[in-house]
Write a structure and sequence with these properties.
This protein is of the alpha/beta class. The protein has eight helices and nine strands. It has one domain: Dihydrofolate Reductase, subunit A (3-Layer(aba) Sandwich), CATH 3.40.430.10. The relative contact order is 0.21. It binds NADP nicotinamide-adenine-dinucleotide phosphate.
């Protein structure tokens, strides 16, 4: 193999990306109050934990982390024990994406146990940001104005050994991943509700420009829950 080809292949090595989202029947992902944790069942929350526990890392963007105040841990002893039996750390790595790096230090993610935290940010980030000063996380600068998501996934795979990660949002991040065609799998919960709202977000944000090309998936699993359904899609080329 030529040196250039080997280098190209190496650059393409990246973590597998699954997105996990809940939507209403009209495709909305958050309530009028702007949160997402209230509109699905306890069974869906248990499913979210199971999916988290199956991945090496969980990724979240700054907006959702602040709005939904998630811990991003696996708060279920049996699931943690099963990870350990499979040779994994008890908790997945927690990955935060923020161009500004302005992450308030009083968020639950810093207060409750979970995996190590890595912040991927940009040159806009200042080391005077509170999160960095508190020594709560490892900071990786990956881009000038926006986080370079391809580089980030390459870094996660090669440095942190993350084979597969689950991205739990939010829409701005999902949109950016979809633009780059970096979503391999989607776990989608459809709740039997309608929210309406012209400013209500969908999984890829507010209605706006089309993606550079449609991203095509194949339905690989359907499960019926109590008044909601759980769908799994795989990127066509991955099947
Ligand atoms: N139903 C569901 O399953 C679900 C799941 C997740 C979220 N949500 C809902 O979605 C809403 C939040 O969504 P959102 O779109 O406003 O926010 P978001 O995607 O969670 O966060 C946006 C922020 O993330 C950072 N970011 C994202 N992509 C980036 C990139 N490529 N480079 C640099 N920074 C990047 C930026 O942070 P900086 O400004 O710091 O640079 C940006 O302002 C909430 O209401 C939440 O409840 C619903």
């Amino acid at each position: 193999m030529s040196w250039e080809r080997a280098e190209m292949q190496e650059a393409q090595v990246r973590s597998w990306v699954a997105a996990n989202f809940a939507v209403t029947a009209d495709g909305k992902v958050s309530t009028a109050a702007g949160t997402s944790s209230q509109f699905t069942s306890p069974a869906d929350k248990a499913r979210l934990l199971r999916i988290r526990a199956e991945h090496d890392a969980v990724m979240i963007a700054r907006g959702t982390l602040e709005k939904d105040r998630m811990v991003l841990g696996v708060r279920d002893e049996a699931l943690r024990a099963s990870r350990v039996r499979r040779g994994l750390p008890e908790e997945p790595l927690r990955v935060i994406i923020s161009g500004s790096g302005r992450i308030p230090t009083d968020l639950p993610v810093f207060r409750y146990p979970g995996g190590p935290i890595v912040l991927y940010t940009t040159r806009r980030f200042s080391s005077r940001e509170p999160a960095a000063l508190e020594g709560n996380l490892t900071v990786q600068v990956m881009g000038e104005q926006e986080v370079d998501l391809s580089e980030t996934l390459h870094h996660l795979r090669t440095v942190y050994r993350v084979r597969k990660l689950v991205c739990e949002g939010g829409p701005t991040l999902i949109r950016a991943l979809a633009e780059l065609d970096l979503i391999d799998e989607i776990f989608l919960t459809v709740a039997a509700k309608l929210f309406g709202g012209s400013l209500a977000l969908t999984m890829t944000g507010l209605p706006g420009k089309f993606l550079p090309a449609s991203r095509r998936f194949r339905l690989s699993d359907v499960k019926k829950g109590d008044n909601e359904i759980y769908l799994t899609y795989r990127k066509e080329a991955c099947i």
